[in-house]
Amino acid sequence: MTPLKIATFNINGIRARLPGLLGWLERERPDVVCLQELKAADDAFPAAEIEAVGYGALWQGQASWNGVAILGRDTQPLEHLRGLPGDPGDSHSRYLEAAVHGVLVACLYLPNGNPQPGPKFDYKLAWFERLIAHAATLKANDHPVVMAGDFNVVPTDFDIYDPKSWRKDALLQPQSREAFQRLLDQGWCDALRTLYPNERLYTFWDYFRQHWQRNSGLRIDHLLLNPALAPYLKSGGVDAWVRNEPHASDHAPTWIEVGGGKRKPGTGH
């Protein structure tokens, strides 16, 4: 398949972070981008500015919070699905699916779930169940599929700098981790963990207690590949330099490269 660079980035407010987003797009030139937490209504999405640096865009906005988008370099993403099936009453803008450069791309922003226990955590788990049900159909697709986004789950204690102070957080709850594992058990490849089985990789550093300066991070942004795409995984990483820019998001872009010949089973090559 044609080589592609696919990235996911929780932008944490696209209007406030637009200069940083545009600078990253121009420097790194990913072919496909999934954005989360736009925090902007549909008519406030900066489509013209993004098009000016070479990207077509598809978005599902929401004023003040949530919001997802899919960008395609030198192409317009073709919408496949808007909103996660299973709950017609769910008004949150958290899920978008499109075909881009021959790959079916599912961009998601899974609910945070805090405080837990409570209604927000119940919503998180119910949303997760809907995702697992829909993901089963995507996993079985004969075409390459990537599910990318902010899953708001720290899969294991190896994916966080120090779990002790986070034990009560919704991101580390046994129910959250069990749901993520059931998703993987369908046959999805956790791309970054596959490439770096023994390395601590973080994608999020909150704004408190100098967590960025101390590299006290969490891995909560994930790229999951279906069996049709997983054999083509070549490389991946985190553009941590973006987190160090002025007015940065608390997340950094996370990316993979796929394409060319198939990877040998059990290796990153």
TrEMBL record:
Its EC number is 3.1.11.2. Pfam families: Exo_endo_phos. CDD domains: ExoIII-like_AP-endo. The keyword Hydrolase applies. Signal peptide: none annotated. It is an enzyme of class 3 (hydrolase). Its cofactor is Mg(2+). InterPro entries: AP_endonuc_1, AP_endonuclease_F1_BS, Endo/exonu/phosph_ase_sf, Endo/exonuclease/phosphatase, ExoIII-like. It comes from the Bacteria. The keyword Magnesium applies. Keywords: Hydrolase, Magnesium, Metal-binding. PANTHER family: EXODEOXYRIBONUCLEASE III. Belongs to the DNA repair enzymes AP/ExoA family. This is Exodeoxyribonuclease III. It comes from Pseudomonas typographi. The gene is xth.
